[in-house]
């Protein structure tokens, strides 16, 4: 690193001069030493409608025993630091990467933290690869043959597992090889559970593992509850298995393959056929991978449980996105505690999952309820029973057409104001509601419908292959339409649509499991297509309630509450499809389902706007509260420093200043956005932070520069006229462009009038030599921030 051309000791110098030679001396080879390895993508920081990446986590060195298997992390600091300086960071990285050894060094001294025993010790040289492997194996106590099988390489190609996927694969493979019969992995939606399942299956298949100890390759069943959850993995992720793949369907039994795929429905017993699973011997499968394991398969009352019981001799690996809750208790009772958990919050923090905004939209009928007038009838002429109807009743037993139209109008206006081509999924109460919503939206977008006839479509079970075709086009990142899908529950899980930018809740979501699955429709990141975050638009209050649940672990960027207004026209003619008018005692019955037909009301009431609020999670990340961005930013500043003086002492140092900026960005506070919000472009970011956090006076950079000029004559009195002129021009440059003009590596001397034609040595002579110039440049920021 250079400081306006002046060299200073850096971590890179330590690495080149000391660390690598010491690793070589301990016997580590270039193939085993991986330098500057990034293992997260960097949290996505969203300010308004803009987003950018934060700084990814990166280790100085990873030490590998084999191609895919790191065993230690090494953090290097400049030689003028203590060798202990990077130890906390090394430990943090070792925990995240599930590594047994962490090292910190300044090049001359080395500190080891043994994650297996908790012991720390100072040393002069690094341990050898053989020593670390021996210590690790002795601690785990695994037989050599198991250790060797665990080290089987992954199937790579262009599919390099992320760090948490590697941990999940390794832990699952180890548990299976040790003979554990029931295993559970809990990973948030969008984190690649299918890829993890493939790598586990591939590893076991390659080493010819099976519970019987024979030499044949194991027979593996990938089991799910929906065809899309089976077909997509079979055709894509598991394609390397080639002809070993087979999908069980159509009542046909095939016993000649090794990698099987099936839905529960294809195997289960029903009214029309006996259970196909009984035609396979109980010990036929060696491993069963159960995708979306929380969806009923482990429940004792579930008919699908019989399938797992029949194949009870097999190792059964459950995969779920839902942590332990009352509604998933059967899953955890069946499989046991997860051997690895990677949460939604962690995925967002690492930058692998998209963060989200929450917009809560409130109609008055949802806020205070709706009650019919005495004798009021619906569009079919049926009298509406008296009572107070609320959000849970709407579209379940009572269809309020003006409410649907109001929501459609608000959604269309939002899309037009943001991005009309943003992929959007609208979750409705049922298929009929999804049809009503689709029609209401389509009427408001004639220009878009003219250009794209499939701009807004309904994708539900009733649509059959047509709906599947729409869904496939919606998922294709290269296809512009469909843009808006309306559905009920069909798309709540298992649909990989990476370009979804809006998830719309127009139905109450009961369980946290279902809520997380729905939210997961938007968490995919497609940075190459400009998809870095998404918006949850909540018309029922579901999202706000779920965020307040202590079991929810994904932080929203912010929550905006927006009531809306629509007035139904009493004179507007009814616009419902012609249907036979029910009569008699069956007037509220559906002819096909024998379920009560919903009452349908169109006219005679209005929907009005109420108010708007902006909400954030509190400091504990548990409750939503009304808050402004500047207040949130102030809290983050005070969490770092208690006083303005303390902040100033660290801000003046360029290295510490960058650390502060990174720390704030990781908490969602970008200085550029703060400048926009506060509308103070001429102020130093330091003054913005001090003003919001410590109520300090507002100052401009010019005021600081003028103040520094008045004091520099005393502080730098020993320097001559040329040096004084250079200092004045440096301060003018700061006033115009900010403190970065004096950061390490700046080319500032090439633009100053007094020095633009001078080389660095000539500039140094004006101050009595380069060491004196470096000293002045170190002291000048302190003068600016006095």
UniProtKB/TrEMBL annotation:
<dbReference type="InterPro" id="IPR050742">
    <property type="entry name" value="Helicase_Restrict-Modif_Enz"/>
</dbReference>
<dbReference type="GO" id="GO:0005524">
    <property type="term" value="F:ATP binding"/>
</dbReference>
<dbReference type="Pfam" id="PF08463">
    <property type="entry name" value="EcoEI_R_C"/>
</dbReference>
<keyword id="KW-0547">Nucleotide-binding</keyword>
<keyword id="KW-0347">Helicase</keyword>
<dbReference type="GO" id="GO:0006304">
    <property type="term" value="P:DNA modification"/>
</dbReference>
<feature type="domain" description="Helicase ATP-binding">
    <location>
        <begin position="174"/>
        <end position="341"/>
    </location>
</feature>
<protein>
    <submittedName>
        <fullName>DEAD/DEAH box helicase</fullName>
    </submittedName>
</protein>
<dbReference type="GO" id="GO:0003677">
    <property type="term" value="F:DNA binding"/>
</dbReference>
<dbReference type="InterPro" id="IPR001650">
    <property type="entry name" value="Helicase_C-like"/>
</dbReference>
<feature type="region of interest" description="Disordered">
    <location>
        <begin position="565"/>
        <end position="595"/>
    </location>
</feature>
<feature type="compositionally biased region" description="Basic and acidic residues">
    <location>
        <begin position="583"/>
        <end position="595"/>
    </location>
</feature>
<dbReference type="InterPro" id="IPR014001">
    <property type="entry name" value="Helicase_ATP-bd"/>
</dbReference>
<keyword id="KW-0378">Hydrolase</keyword>
<dbReference type="InterPro" id="IPR027417">
    <property type="entry name" value="P-loop_NTPase"/>
</dbReference>
<dbReference type="GO" id="GO:0004386">
    <property type="term" value="F:helicase activity"/>
</dbReference>
<dbReference type="InterPro" id="IPR013670">
    <property type="entry name" value="EcoEI_R_C_dom"/>
</dbReference>
<dbReference type="GO" id="GO:0016787">
    <property type="term" value="F:hydrolase activity"/>
</dbReference>
<dbReference type="GO" id="GO:0005829">
    <property type="term" value="C:cytosol"/>
</dbReference>
<keyword id="KW-0067">ATP-binding</keyword>
<dbReference type="Pfam" id="PF00271">
    <property type="entry name" value="Helicase_C"/>
</dbReference>
<dbReference type="InterPro" id="IPR006935">
    <property type="entry name" value="Helicase/UvrB_N"/>
</dbReference>
<dbReference type="Pfam" id="PF04851">
    <property type="entry name" value="ResIII"/>
</dbReference>
